[in-house]
Amino acid sequence: MVREFELPDVGEGVAEGEIVGWLVEVGDAVEEDQPVAEVETDKAVVEVPSPVDGTVQAIHADAGELVPVGTVIITFAEDGDETATEDEEPSETRTDTATETRSEVGAVESKDDGASDDGSGSASSGRVFAAPSARRLARELDVDIGAVDGSGPGGRVSDTDVRAAAESDDDGDGASTADEPAPKPAVERVEGGDESDPGPAMATGSASRERTLAAPATRRLAEESGIDIDSVPTDEERDGEAFVTPAAVEAFAESQRAAQDADRAALAGSGGEERIPYRGMRRTIGEQMARSKATAPHVTHHDEVDVTELVETRSELKAEAEERGIGLSYMPFVMKACVAALRAFPSMNAMLDEEAEEIVEKHYYNIGVATATDAGLMVPVVRNADERNLLELASEMNELVGKARERSISREEMQGGTFTVTNVGAIGGEYATPIINVPEVAILALGAIKEKPRVVDGEVVPRHVLTLSLSIDHRVIDGAIAAQFTNRVMKYLENPQLLLLE
Amino acid sequence: MVVGDVTTGTELLIIGAGPGGYVAAIRAGQLGIDTTLVEKDAYGGTCLNHGCIPSKALISATDVAHDAREAEEMGIHADPAVDLAGMVDWKDDVVDQLTGGVEQLCKANDVNLVEGRAEFADENTVRVAHGGEGQGSESIEFEHAVVATGSRPVEVPNFEFDGEHVISSRDALALDSVPDSLVVVGAGYIGMELATVFAKLGTDVTVVEMLEGILPPYEDDVSKVVRDRAEEIGIDFFFGEAASDWEESGDGITVRTENEDGEVSEFGAEKALVAVGRAPVTDTLNLDAVGLETDEDGFLATDDRARTDVESVFAVGDVAGEPMLAHKGMKEGEVAAEVVAGEPSALDYQSVPAAVFTDPEVGTVGMTEDEAEEAGFSPVVGQMPMQASGRALTLGDTGGFTRVVADDDAGFILGAQVVAPEASELIAEFGLAIEMGATLEDVAATIHTHPTLGETVMEAVENAQGKAIHTLNR
């Protein structure tokens, strides 16, 4: 008989434990009560004993792994059974009293022989069991439902499973960094509230309380009306706390509707309005932006740099490049400067792996170039920018940007970036608060290069000045590093000949 | 550009207003797409005008008369007089009501309706020829097109439909008097439904079929229930007989058939109804102009977005391949419209139910036991005979069974075969179960109303679990 052993509650009410180490290996014979693993909780290190006499058949968690209580961590073959190896078909003779207690916790690798441990038929048939709503959600979130671990009976895939897969999928879809600030939500999301559109800004006459007393039915009515119960004005009190009645909720909901109607009427009166479907690329970009803003605490560092020498250098090289059939913009210079600065500050060329609780510093330099297209923002990625010279960077970038504008760019060509540059100034403007292309940790926005008065050797002279806006993910990068990194980029842009050393 | 042409433009052009086309049009209208629907004949297509709906109307009406005649066991003694012309008038009223409804729904959803026959002129234009002298034609430029031209009955060589001696299913549904005798060529679902109708109306019906059984796609124990009942009501079957030719004789015709050994048999009857299947209507569309080719059977290949090989052209319904079922076409139409609107829609259904309105009805969905095994499952089967159903007994109709096929490992419901009164309705529950990824336990734990035929679903599921109450478990 196979016995799957779940991590017991080794402390008083702890939720998870870290496997400090295994005291047995697969194939070892064990006796009942023999310690098989050391587990550390937030309270203590404890030994986990074997529940049976038998043989260790499989170990499901690595040393160092954090395991929720109730997860199968080890499988024993009890003595007196033929030891089934992991790859064997389950026994053909089924009896009503199942001799195997299969756990549905934890993803089990499906095997080629069609005997999938999670009991789902998908390993053998390729069929995925999921409701149409979950399938549609998977399409919306661009998740391959066939690759989602189902948590339902027999491995059935639920909406929650699909969302979890979408969140754990680090593949950005290229639509990411903004060259304009994200729209500010009209009202703050109510904690634990409905995730639907919170609607326009609250009308006047709304309250703002920390706590509200109300009957459950009143709360439900508020939720259905999309209203934050703490915003409902009331004169009534119970036990010294504000008390809201259903009538008050209805009155407030009505006033909200009236305010919205008035807004609409005002808009209509001023030449009407057009409703454009929020779909396709626009929605993809929007979702990525929202994800980035919700995930990474953004801080933007601004500075400006005298690029007079760069302007001269570029105009000299531009003619040379054109003879070779390559258009040379400022972007390749900026990319080279960024790569040099990223080398000096590796935490800027990184990602945060929240699941593993690790910061991953990357030793390759794939630079995303945010590109405005008719369909919206796209971010083609120039791979291994550190291994290319100026002209190679220019021609690679021109080709990718061209493809993005023609919509012929592939998904792969917009993935795998480690740092992004966005050229706001190409259209106009000086400073921005660009949104990071998560899971990257930083993005640099360039303003327009303008002639401005600068003080050089005590004299006010006209100089070419470029504005820089660097957004960082404050979970990983501190302001000091952001400033140092920007200074390093500026150094190269002020003295482009330094790039020859890179 | 043809002289005298008027050219208009539309975002989405749909050719054919059958279930696939009209659903695509209404959904597109709902999504705010500028939509034009071209129909050469009647709104609702074959389904509403000459297929599903009129046949079901006649089957229901016929059953009323037949059941009354057969109800002596219940203490009812009746011999209803059937006026086929009156029955057909009622059926026509039903059809008119539905087709009128389709037209109104299209208009209410801002769909532009154009009457005429459309063919492609180039990759973004169709020409619509209006019927009748001097009606002229018009060109319509489109951004996207949906081909929804449906299917037509297949003709057997030497048996061209003439509407008098050799009739199609469409002709059969419009007869104004009951023929004394009828040879039905083909024992598929259309042949069997109509053979049953006329046999119940008193026609002497003979079915000749090239294959060795009726309802070829269905399992033997399913078709056997229908065949036994058909023989009870007086239908004669001849299998392994291919219709070769016919000739007029007296007031009727003689149909000749040949078996494998070349032996010829003759069957005399007033008329021959030929129902050997349907073929897609794609030869009228000038598909070359839009850069499309059909397969050898005339179908257009489509992907899971209902899109053909040409990005801007979709195909839905019978032209898009088997199974040629109205409800499959409707879903394809919906998806095509949503894809045009940029929605993340796809044809990712797990199963397509099918129903045959014979006596008793057949309803199937998903996999048979053999198919489940081929797909790599270890299937478990549960069955409930109608004889054990209280409701079937009270209906005086106990032929058939409800059967479920599930995966023995995880309990997922994979398919069902029901041959029973109202099987066409009962199958819906299994369809939902399959689509939701429901397990035997999920359905068994759902309380079903007593006394209903629906209980047989629960009982079959419990039988698969080895814990049925009203039948002996295997």
Could you characterize the architecture of this molecule?
The complex is a heterodimer of chains A (502) and B (474). In chain A, a hairpin with a 2-residue loop joins strand 14 (367-373) and strand 15 (376-378). Among the domains of chain A are: 2-77, OB fold (Dihydrolipoamide Acetyltransferase, E2P); 213-267, no CATH class; 298-501, Chloramphenicol Acetyltransferase (2-Layer Sandwich), CATH 3.30.559. Chain A is built from ten helices and 19 strands. Residues 81-124 and 170-204 of chain A have low confidence and may be disordered. The radius of gyration of chain A is 30 Å and the shape is globular. In chain A, helix 2 packs parallel to helix 3 (159-168), helix 4 (216-224) runs parallel beside helix 5 and helix 8 (331-344) crosses helix 10 (479-494). Chain A has helices at residues 122-125, 132-140, 159-168, 216-224, 246-269, 280-295, 308-323, 331-344, 390-406, 479-494; strands at residues 2-6, 16-22, 29-30, 35-40, 45-49, 54-59, 66-68, 72-78, 237-238, 241-242, 298-306, 350-353, 358-361, 367-373, 376-378, 381-382, 419-423, 442-456, 459-473. In chain A, the strands form five sheets. In chain A, strands 11, 14, 15, 16, 17, 18 and 19 form a seven-stranded mixed sheet that branches. Chain A has a four-stranded antiparallel sheet with strand order 1-8-6-3, with no helix packed on it. A four-stranded antiparallel sheet of chain A has the order 5-4-2-7, with no helix packed on it. Chain A is α+β, with helices and mostly antiparallel strands and 502 residues long. Helix content of chain B is 31%, strand content 26%. Chain B has 13 helices and 22 strands. Chain B starts with 5 loop residues before the first strand and ends in a 10-residue tail after the last helix. In chain B, the strands form five sheets. In chain B, strands 1, 2, 3, 4, 5, 6 and 17 form a seven-stranded mixed sheet that branches. Chain B has a five-stranded parallel sheet with strand order 8-15-9-10-11. By secondary structure, chain B is α/β, with parallel strands linked by helices. Chain B has three domains: 7-57 and 84-153 and 279-341, 3-Layer(bba) Sandwich (FAD/NAD(P)-binding domain); 166-276, 3-Layer(bba) Sandwich (FAD/NAD(P)-binding domain), CATH 3.50.50.60; 353-465, FAD/NAD-linked reductase, C-terminal dimerisation domain (Enolase-like, domain 1). Chain A binds chain B through residues 90, 94, 96, 114, 119-121, 124-127, 129-132, 135-136, 139-140, 152-157, 277, 279-280, and chain B through 32, 341-346, 348-350, 375-377, 407-412, 435-437, 439, 441-442, 466.
